[in-house]
């Protein structure tokens, strides 16, 4: 059962002499209920990979499928709806709205989608991320780790088919980061969520079930049940990072 499939995805930015091939024929299947880290040197195509997976960027060639849905067949409106209802996003910088309460932030994607929250699911998510007592607070009243927990609850509110995270612990100290990674792993193992996470950090990657390595826009191997030392060793062979 696949949550996400990339088939021979190529992404070329620009034209002629200035053209940059950011992804060069990447084929990946992401299993439902898996936690996958994506690593690679700077410029290897990680963000482009995530953007193509989210329908934020269109591949030059190849296909991206969310479940059975081919993103190439969708127009901008349909893609926007798909991102609100079927994909969750977690960013390095949390991206919470400062004027809204925690509860309002969490509910925002659903409101924008004009959808009712599944209250039972929402309660479960809020309890698991550990912010049940903070629902009436504003983001500025929370620590960085708590803000990222709110962002995680927001990403999960619509019960998405895949959660995409770009350096979700990049702004956190290592202890708080570890708690957030532990939480992501729990959401995968206990709630059956599917998480794809870009990271530079071998320790962060070790929380995932497997790691995909990118180099020069191509898949350069993978590692199951990664430990930090093995991940760091692979990265060293892929170049600067
Ligand atoms: N909008 C764009 N226009 C032109 N080139 C781009 C664009 N976006 C990315 N690129 C190029 O595509 C390549 C891959 O970029 P990408 O941002 O995916 O790398 P990355 O692995 O996320 O790097 P980092 O670790 O530094 O975030 C790079 O050479 C980059 O310069
Ligand atoms: Mg990037």
Q: How does this structure look, described?
A:
This protein has helices at residues 46-53, 76-86, 102-112, 119-129, 144-156, 174-191, 202-205, 228-238, and strands at residues 2-13, 20-31, 35-39, 61-66, 69-70, 87-91, 162-166, 195-198, 210-215, 218-224. It has a single domain (2-95, 160-236), classed as P-loop containing nucleotide triphosphate hydrolases (Rossmann fold). The two termini are 33 Å apart. Strands 6-7-8-3-9-10 form a 6-stranded mixed β-sheet, sandwiched between helices. The protein is of the alpha/beta class. Residues 46-47 line the site of magnesium ion.
Provide a brief overview of the structure.
The protein has one domain (2-95, 160-236): Rossmann fold (3-Layer(aba) Sandwich), CATH 3.40.50.300. It is 36% helix and 27% strand. It starts with a strand and ends with a helix.
């Amino acid at each position: 059962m696949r949550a996400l499939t990339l088939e021979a995805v190529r992404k070329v930015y620009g034209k002629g002499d200035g053209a940059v091939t950011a992804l060069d024929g990447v084929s990946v299947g992401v299993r439902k209920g898996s936690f996958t880290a994506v690593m690679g040197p700077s410029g290897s195509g990680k963000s482009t990979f995530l953007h193509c997976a989210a329908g934020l960027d269109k591949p030059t060639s190849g296909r991206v499928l969310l479940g059975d849905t081919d993103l190439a067949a969708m127009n901008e409106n349909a893609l926007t709806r798909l991102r609100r209802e079927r994909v969750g996003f977690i960013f390095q910088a949390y991206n919470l709205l400062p004027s809204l309460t925690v509860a309002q932030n969490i509910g925002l994607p659903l409101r924008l989608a004009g959808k009712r929250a599944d209250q039972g699911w929402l309660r479960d998510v809020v309890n698991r991320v550990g912010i049940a007592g903070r629902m009436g607070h504003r983001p500025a009243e929370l620590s960085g780790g708590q803000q990222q927990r709110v962002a995680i609850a927001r990403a999960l509110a619509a019960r998405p088919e895949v959660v995409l995270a770009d350096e979700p612990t990049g702004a956190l100290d290592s202890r708080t980061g570890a708690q957030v990674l532990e939480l992501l792993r729990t959401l995968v193992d206990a709630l059956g969520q599917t998480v794809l996470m870009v990271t530079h950090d071998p320790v962060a990657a070790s929380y995932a079930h497997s790691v995909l390595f990118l180099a020069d826009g191509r898949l350069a191997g993978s590692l199951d049940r990664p430990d930090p030392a093995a991940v760091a060793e692979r990265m060293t062979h892929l170049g600067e990072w």
